[in-house]
Structure prediction request, 1011 residues.
Amino acid sequence: MVKAYLRYEHSGVFGVISSNSNVLYDASGKQVITGALENIAFWNIRQGTQVATFSPELASSSSSTKAAAEVTQIALAPGGQQLAAGYSDGTVRLWDIASRSCQVTLTGHSGAVICLGFSANGALLASGSADTSVIVWDVVGEAGLVRFKGHKDAVTDLALIHQGSRLISSSKDGCVKVWDVTLQHCCQTLIGFKGEVWSLAVNPEETRVVAGCVDSDLRVYAIRNPDAADAAEAAQGTATAAGGPAAAAAAAAAAAAAAAGSDSEDEGGDVRMAELMTGQQQQQQKARQHDVLLFMGLVRRTGQERVGLIRYDARGGLLGVMGAGKGLEVFSVRSEEAALKKMKRRKKRREAKTAAGTAGKAAKTAAGATPGQAAAAAADDDADDHEDAAAAAAAPQASDELGSVLVLTSKHKLKSFAFSPAGGHKGNLGQVALGLVNNSVEVALGLSNDSVEVVDVVDVREGSYESASKLELPGHRSDVRCLALSSDDAQLLSGSNAGCKLWDPLSGACLGSIDTGYALCCVYAPGNRHALVGTKEGTIQLVDVGACTVIHTEQAHSGAVWSLALLPDKSGFVSGSADKTIKFWTWAVTTVQQQQDAACAEDAAAAAGKKKKKGKKGQDDEDDAAAAAAAAAAAEAVVVRQLGFIQARVLEMADDVLCVRVSPDGRLLAASLLDATIKVYYVDSLKFFLSLYGHKLPALTMDISSDSTLLLTGSADKNIKVWGLDFGDCHKSMFAHQDTITAVAFVKDTHYAFSVSKDRTLKYWDLDRFEMLLELPGHHGEVWALALSAYGDFVVTGSHDRSLRRWERSSEPFFVEEEKERRLESLFEADLEQQQQRQQREAGGLILGPEGGSFAGAGAAAAGGDDAAAGADGVAAAGRRTIESVSAADTIIDALDVAAHEAEKVEEYERELRAAQWVAGWLAQGSQVELSCRVATLLLRLHHAQLTATPSARQTLVDLHKRLRAAVQGLRDTLGFNIAALKYMQLAAKESAGVDEGDVVKAARRQLLAA
Prediction:
């Protein structure tokens, strides 16, 4: 008989604040939106709590060989009612914030989605990916419009401008491209960057673009307005027809100013520019009339690292530039008037400097040249200075519009940032000098240690800022290295290099944080009121779980404490360390001296003061002394009795101890050593019992079954071995994981077990049959820890991705053979999809990138020039062929075949229905009654179910029933009348012939007897 098992399903993930995606504010500015692995989390800034979670509906995790895709980028639509999320598998999901539901899943990229951007009206969405392509999606139609293929490396950032008619994209290939979405082609390519272009930003007015690459300079471009440019071109044509070449040159200068989107230059500057323009310059100006981006200049940053992210605030008054390190520089965007003033000051300084240089140069020239040569040189210098001054005075430069005002430095590396759409808090208005309306900005920093910090900039002019709040409690700052569940499964303790945290395993709520140092192992003490934590420094710390404090610290070992195990009789515990010792500890009640708090001392002093007032006046000195003595007595240390532990025995080992376990019957102690052996001792006498060999690398984890008969070990050689504790024989050795096995655990009172590994999977085993039951992917990093509930109804795992995942046992049964078939089918489909993607990349002449994208090397476009970059541009369909799409197409074809077959049946049935209507007509005419009856009977026998189930056939059946009964009754009456008439005529004929009826009967009888 085939054995059935109960399935374990992924039921929740917690402990993640912000993963590898960017952070955003919602439309109100009261909540921060972060990507938390495959989920999207909404956090209340003021309360520091998670208020909502968007989780995609995924297939059963046991039927897939890979984890759910991680959120890599999020973008909020204009109006804040819709949220777009890009994932590591190339999909884009659109979420409705009000209903918290996924409206549509868009599949088009073959690599991770790196950037997203909505158009100003929210009708279009653009996505850039590591597969070097950019796709424009129709949000309303829920379909892809076009795929732009022109970049040679991953697309890093993008922006839709002019109501979605233009798209600007940057890439690691060192290019910035402008795409015409309407005509579906690349209309401009910007090169000349020193390396990868990491980010770009467009101001809310869509007049400026700021791009950043690997150097410390920001490149600012003016966005050409197509409408203004067309109007200027029309004016130029009119001026040419009316006023000749001079007027045409002036109109060309005005067209250039209109195309750049700047109205700041004066009329005199336009005239001077028109006069200085040569024929070649006019041709270049005419050729650049179709450019969307016009270079304005460079702005130097304070930081020297590469640019990580550039963003404008909602009003366009501030520009934030995040570096690849820990700094965020804030630039102030000057108004048009302020930019003109700065330009004029710069112009005056330049003119003064030029005049001084010209005078000195003229003096040197006049000293050694003839008067004619000196005059010619002076004229040339004046012309060059006039050209430089005219070019400099044409329009404000980038440095005139942007000015650095503040540099925010975090303790941790920055990952992303976002400006609040609501501006600063009202409480900061009182700190603003000169009665400014709003002189504060709220910045949310996504830190690389999985936390979000909110910073209030108090006064931009002074460059001061202060931290308002931090979202860091509900998550670890680094890997989760150890887990422990209480005996009643009500609490979960997790440890990392920064301390321990206490959780509710069912709801995922963080109950508290405990500063314990680098925790390597932990276990709950009997009673669940205390817990033990072993650290990397060699200490064992006793934690009061209720108070979330460390009440006792013991320097137990000189090396890292790798393992702790409770004794079954609850009398103590065992610790194993890298100092090659195993120590036995027993529980004890210790006395600790603690200082009385200040409140008690104040109460004692007050009591002494009251006593002083009641005494005599001559005893003031004595009363003062008594009061001082009372205060000193109140401040003295008090003795407190609390739980502790003392060392009982020590067992010296030959090598570092990696793991220790005590059998549930309390008879044996198993220790895993660094020399890849497992030693088994008797607990009572510490005598050697067994030595288990077989692992090629050290066994990092092990566990003993509840009946104390099996020992399960997991090693760095990727194998698990099942040993018998009676004779020490190896029952089975199985290749379990693709990487180092980090933790194993038996289900209580069974021989079922779980194992986790650095290959990011959790596996479920039946060790009686020595076969794997389930493979449960879910984590996005190495899985370090495993904690199993008392009855095996759920299991919790901790990982390098800082997440804690809960897997619950469901009531759904499954069979091992079916699971094997599903895993093989999933592996085959994944391999087939990879082959298809590889063939597509090879067909396109590209090579496979490290993140699944294809590229031709950074800087290839810059090396090949503008023509080489433009020659590689292409447009393709937005969809992507996947196993799901192919299977869906097959399903559609099958559905069409079924529909065609059903259509044939419907057509046949419609013919029968028409025949029934004809029968009703024949019966109404009174012709062919017998034939009509036979046809109606045959139709009812063949199509009774269809006729009764079709509402449109009801009237035909009713008419047929009435007419058929009347026609059959009339036919019956006619036949009866005719038969009676024939009998009467027969009798009359016999009587006329004189034939007696009796004679006829006798003759017939004689014939029968004779025969």
